[in-house]
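ERR on first pass: missing label on line 2. Operator R.T. fixed the label and resubmitted. Corrected input:
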Amino acid sequence: MEHILSGRAAAADLQAKLKERVLALQAGGIVPTLATVRVGEDGADASYERAIVRVCQNVGIRLQKHVLPLGCGQAALEDQLRRLDRDPETSGILLFRPLPKALDEAAAAACIRPGKDVDCMTEAALAGVYLGTSGSWAPCTAEGCMRLLAHYGIDPAGMHAVVLGRSAVVGRPLATLLLRANATVTVCHSKTRDLAAVCRSADLLVAALGKEHFVGPEYIKPGAVVLDVGVHWNAAAGKMTGDVDFDAVAPLAGAISPVPGGVGAMTSTMLAAHVVAAAEAQKE
Amino acid sequence: MEHILSGRAAAADLQAKLKERVLALQAGGIVPTLATVRVGEDGADASYERAIVRVCQNVGIRLQKHVLPLGCGQAALEDQLRRLDRDPETSGILLFRPLPKALDEAAAAACIRPGKDVDCMTEAALAGVYLGTSGSWAPCTAEGCMRLLAHYGIDPAGMHAVVLGRSAVVGRPLATLLLRANATVTVCHSKTRDLAAVCRSADLLVAALGKEHFVGPEYIKPGAVVLDVGVHWNAAAGKMTGDVDFDAVAPLAGAISPVPGGVGAMTSTMLAAHVVAAAEAQKE
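pass 2 clean. output:
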């Protein structure tokens, strides 16, 4: 087993495969297209947006950026989404969230059909994750974790996987994906007693709780696989860091994903993969 | 803590509360009404249907039974469901499942609006369980487990809950409900290594794997709360039994639900609770 699980390497590998699929689509006259919709100019997720631009350019996905003014109102947002949903040139739609508080996210999501919901916004996509049915896509970061494991030949089947964090976008969908992959899955959170002991029982530990350097060596069973979903800007160190204290944990772990260049590097590539898959499905 | 967690007692208590809510609805001219739809006459779940009749009569819910012929076809089923969905007299709709193989369950569910989906068939209801949003109802048996715990004042917060079984109707939704109640939740299944040891780490063990008397004393931490979701007809003994070997486990458990008269006794009452809640919501 490789010791460092590089999201950059896994993403590059997936992007190469996506490029081929895009060429096949283009040969059939189809250009896979991602429409992004943002309300207000300055998003906190500008780095995510830059990553999307980079991946789409590399893979061959056409990008349409739509920006609505901050005070646009629900009707204008829904009109825009419905227009993109009807547009045969649009393969997939990404709505940047969270929306301004005055806007209703669920009602906006309902304007998108599951076949264009590349970011798991709709009830149908959520239900698909829950039921394990095909035809919809899981949240990109959760799926990125699975893809990173697969890239390094790590099969979660039979492993005890402990997921630290229970958010709707990462912790819970990832728990569902790991369960589907036949792991025994424990979800931990702020109310968990003896948290370090529970984590030490993990063959696979996923840190997705959003607390910088929370996971130290006392959380790690020697040889365990450790995925770090956390992303924090450490001003003192002048670099990105994760939920895991990498320097202290890496010597114990059997394999570990770094920050940056680990799980986070997978997210925009998974989004691109969904756009390509959506374009392929729409072709049929 | 009571040693025997009686679903009959908890259901009777809930039914008494539902009766009062039904009286309040009737005073406003509303009779909560459950429409059941069955395809083909002889269901394997005849005992569930009898329980529903009994609970509805006791609580004051009007029951409409609709039976479609076995070879009815998808269109006829969907027409029937849409008619009931539009009917202002129908508060909630229960479609008996599984359907004959020729029929499409998801397409049938899509004919029911979330507000009448008292059995968690629709994507919206599943997404609601997943996201923890209100306005839809969880599967009745999973919710029955939570209600049974609540009736006996057992708060799962901080407990390590182990759910044995990962079905879409019980194991997974129950894991989600327990997580929302701040338990640390582990889902186990046929691929789990060292199953007995994992179960022995549980403060709360839920057996929902569908194997008669699978859970023996070696699965139990002394003092643990044990819920038995299994229902088996033991012909030799001439009685219903569960997934738990009750006689062997009960002396160790801090509290345990019997079969029959445990979790199973909650299901039809939870369904009735959803019908009453639906009628109340529709009134508004």
